[in-house]
Specification:
Elements: E1 4-8, H1 15-24, E2 28-30, H2 42-52, E3 56-59, H3 67-72, H4 74-94, E4 99-102, E5 104-105, H5 132-152, E6 155-157, E7 159-161, E8 163-165, H6 178-192, E9 196-200, E10 206-207, E11 209-211, H7 212-224, E12 231-233, E13 239-240, H8 241-252, E14 257-261, E15 270-271, H9 276-282, H10 290-303, H11 305-310
Parallel strand pairs: 1-2, 1-3, 3-4, 4-6, 5-7, 7-12, 8-11, 9-14, 10-15
Antiparallel strand pairs: 10-13
Helix pairs in contact: 1-7, 2-4, 4-5, 6-8, 6-10, 8-10
The structure holds guanosine-5'-diphosphate.
Guanosine-5'-diphosphate (GDP) is lined by residues 66-68, 107, 131, 163, 176-178, 181, 199-201, 205, 207, 241, 264-268, 271.
């Protein structure tokens, strides 16, 4: 029998790729959105889940963005994500939903892990102050999944996803993550014939980037599996922000100067996941190289600039 999955955040940047991947794997997917399904409203959430009675829920909706919004709106990020998550878990458990997967984030790892972050490090120390609020809301969900598992027999899953990029991302300076931010900055500079582009921080921090379509495939594979511990989802490949800037400059055809604004935060110095468990549990590795994924994203941005620039 086809399993029915309710996906939250299904029209978002990552959610739409998750919907595609789940359908490709044979799931029947519903993506109710506001106003009929507003996760900030507990009784609406309850009514919609009671009505749809899905076999599983994938919770991808979140209020978040890059370092900029994480530092500017820690309280709103905390309040919205915790309330949405708690409303969802409570409604799912009361409706007898068998499985809930909450999309997790590498921001939940402690800020000071030496080397690549292994699943065992998840609870080993305090979060980096720049992303503590967002990162901790995902930890609240992880505890919630276990609590509702014990209390209601609900199966919980959490892919801990590294920095995402791809088509439909948010490109505006305030909310964007670095990959989309730099694509916009360099592509716009080429169009306006600007002689320099300013990036944040020193360029020294190291991040790991996974193409959104690949991360969505990992989500679908995890849902099919019976694996219930938090599972890293990434490429395991670290790239410095300086290297990312140079690669993005080359791929967009920008030939001017790259300037570093060191008054802006670097955030965590290194955030790269150990993905050995992912490779053995899912029997899979992300196929898209950073260069190939960036090329697709740049093309999408150039072809959809008006739509991308209009998104807040
Ligand atoms: P993080 O992984 O949670 O820190 O989120 P981001 O993707 O927003 O930032 C990653 C790194 O890129 C940080 O060291 C930023 O300082 C750096 N960075 C450089 N230029 C930019 C930019 O224009 N926007 C963003 N968001 N980050 C930038």
């Amino acid at each position: 029998m086809t399993e029915r999955v309710l996906l939250t955040g299904g029209s978002g940047f990552f959610g739409r790729r998750i919907a595609e991947a789940l359908r490709r794997h044979g799931y029947e997917v519903s993506t109710p959105g506001r106003p009929e399904f507003d996760l900030m409203d507990a009784s609406l959430t309850r009514r919609t889940i009671d009505r749809l009675r899905p076999d599983a829920i994938v919770h991808s909706a979140a209020y978040y963005g890059g370092l900029g919004i994480c530092m500017a709106e820690p309280a709103q990020i905390f309040q919205r994500n915790v309330i949405m998550g708690v409303n969802l878990l409570e409604a799912a458990a009361r409706a007898g939903v068998g499985k809930v997967m909450a999309i997790g984030s590498a921001c939940s790892y402690p800020g000071g892990v030496a080397g690549d972050m292994k699943e065992e490090d998840f609870w080993s120390g305090p979060l980096h102050p720049s992303v503590e609020s967002y990162g901790f809301t995902k930890k609240v969900l992880e505890v919630g999944l276990r609590a509702y598992g014990r209390g209601f027999g609900m199966v919980g899953q959490m892919p801990v996803v590294t920095n995402l990029y791809g088509e439909y991302d948010v490109f505006g300076e305030y909310r964007s993550h670095v990959a989309a931010a730099l694509i916009k900055k360099f592509a716009d500079a080429v169009q306006s014939k600007a002689d320099h582009v300013t990036c944040w921080g020193t360029g020294a921090p190291v991040r790991e980037f996974i193409y959104s379509g690949d991360a969505a495939e990992a989500v679908a594979r995890l849902l099919q599996s019976g694996y219930t511990e938090p599972l890293n989802v990434g490429t395991g490949i670290g790239t410095s922000i300086k290297e990312l800037a140079e690669l993005t400059a080359r791929l967009t055809g920008f030939r001017g100067e790259i300037v570093w604004d060191t008054s802006k935060s670097d955030g965590v110095l290194r955030k790269v996941l150990d993905v050995s468990k992912m490779e053995s549990v899912l029997g899979w590795k992300p196929p898209t190289s950073l260069e190939a994924g960036l090329k697709r994203t740049i093309r999408w941005y150039l072809e959809n600039k008006a739509e991308a620039d209009a998104r807040p």
